[in-house]
Amino acid sequence: MEKTKQTVPSVVPRHVAIIMDGNNRWAKKRFMPGVAGHKAGVDAVRAVIEVCAEAKVEVLTLFAFSSENWQRPAEEVSALMDLFFKALRREAKRLNDNGISLRIIGDRSRFHPELQAAMREAEAITAGSNRFVLQIAANYGGQWDIAQAAQRLAREVQAGHLRPDDITPELLQTCLVTGDLPLPDLCIRTGGEHRISNFLLWQLAYTELYFSDLFWPDFKHDAMRNALADFASRQRRFGKTSEQIEAGARV
Q1: Domain 13-139+183-231 class in CATH
Q2: For this structure, is 198 an active site residue?
Q3: Nearest Cα to Cα of residue 103 among 150, 71, 62
Q4: Element spanning 5, H or E
Q5: Residue 137 burial by CB count (10 A; 0-12/13-18/19+): exposed, middle or buried?
Q6: Is 180 in the active site?
Q7: For labelling, which of 132, 174, 230, 251 has a CA lying 20 to 30 Å from the CA of 29?
């Protein structure tokens, strides 16, 4: 019943970004270990991918593991790494068969070499897919992303290829790890918290924010469709007035 196709909203975001929060609290309510919540969250990932594909979203970015998550208990981090490794090996062919290109964004240097190899392999398997892009943010932080972009530009200046005055917001944006993709139109956070937690800090400047009280494992097809419908009901002004937007729509 839940997977029955619904009418696609008239306005669909090109890029949806999601902070998948609440896995641990979902498990705790059921007197289960935290990793059980992360495993249950895999079904929510599949559901959201299905709805985004159905709605013809172009890019879906999922915040899987932040640069701050290393501070969690060692056994939880280890279990998460094992789950990530197995998911990459298991899901890459399925993603490719469904025309989904996988990209992993973030600082990979801290991951075990075997996991880094699995990331490269999964990206290579799906490289020819073009239905839409699935980005997994792993060991990612928005501040890190801006810093690495600034470092790239500083090296260009140092090499004499750029002048400091050549650096514009548009140029810096191209140096972010998402620089070749459209900016997020919609950012969803589950779990009832109302913050963005160092996720895509630059990219979210004009993004519509949507907060759900559902824990991530419970955020399935209908919840995702509701978020898309809410987005379609909003007027995005980008600094203009409502009258300007309405006048432009009539032209």
Answers
A1: alpha beta
A2: no
A3: 62
A4: none
A5: buried
A6: no
A7: 230
Binding residues for substrate: 22-26, 38, 66-68, 70, 72, 189, 195-197
Binding residues for Mg(2+): 21, 208
Q: Which of 43, 69, 98, 198 is catalytic?
A: 69
Catalytic residue from among 21, 96, 139, 145: 21
Q: Is 221 within 8 Å of 245 (Cβ atoms)?
A: no
Total number of residues shown for the chain: 251
* Residue that has been written with the tokens 């964004």 in this structure: 105
Per-residue pLDDT averaged across 247-251, rounded? 59
Other CB atoms within 10 Å distance of the CB of residue 122: 23
Predicted TM-score (pTM) of this structure: 0.91
Which parts are annotated binding residues?
21-26, 38, 66-68, 70, 72, 189, 195-197, 208
pLDDT in tens, 61-114: 999 999 999 999 898 899 899 999 999 999 999 999 999 999 999 999 999 999
